[in-house]
Design brief:
168 residues; alpha/beta; 9 strands; 33% helix
Length: 168
């Protein structure tokens, strides 16, 4: 058989949180070097994440990557410049029910739609993006918008809902 010494991956798919980033959500120099070495050997690096496009693109910018980005747990595939290659959004009907549930029980709820996070109350996800926005140029900042009744955004972006999350 072929010796492993000759094997070179043509594509490396990397998760972001807990894989590329350290526990403080930072990109280490060692990780940056490893990515650069893989690229020099001809590998395509594809970032794959549960995060939405702006959040993945900001990390891609920090890692000096400009390839394909798989975001929203696979619901969307984008080029680094934003072109949508694939999109499968959520059905707005259960989204409305989830927003109602969060409201009823006083829970934080984030709705990811059309490259923005709509949130009903401040939460740790929004805090993390506030911090990330301080580390990247304005054109790589992650958009979010406070909206006490998320059903408004669900109606407006019914075809473009990437993800929803409820946080205690």
């Amino acid at each position: 058989g072929m010796s492993m010494a000759f094997w070179r991956p043509r594509l490396i798919a990397l998760d972001i949180d807990g894989t590329m980033l350290d526990p403080a959500s930072a990109l280490t120099n060692a990780t940056l070097r490893a990515i650069q070495m893989a690229r020099e050997k001809g590998a395509h690096i594809v970032l794959c994440s549960g995060r939405y496009f702006p959040g993945v693109r900001a990390i891609a910018w920090q890692a000096r990557l400009d390839g394909i980005l798989i975001v929203g747990n696979g619901a969307q595939i984008r080029t680094a410049d934003g072109a949508i290659l694939f999109h499968r959004g959520l059905d707005p009907v259960p989204c409305r029910a989830i927003a109602g549930f969060a409201e009823k029980w006083g829970l934080c709820c984030n709705l990811y739609a059309a490259d923005r996070i709509y949130f009903n109350r401040d939460n740790r996800v929004i805090d993390a993006y506030v911090k990330l926005n301080r580390e990247v140029p304005p054109e790589y900042c992650c958009a979010y918008c406070s909206m006490p009744d998320l059903r408004t955004a669900i109606e407006e972006y019914a075809g473009a809902i990437l993800k929803m999350e409820v946080l205690s």
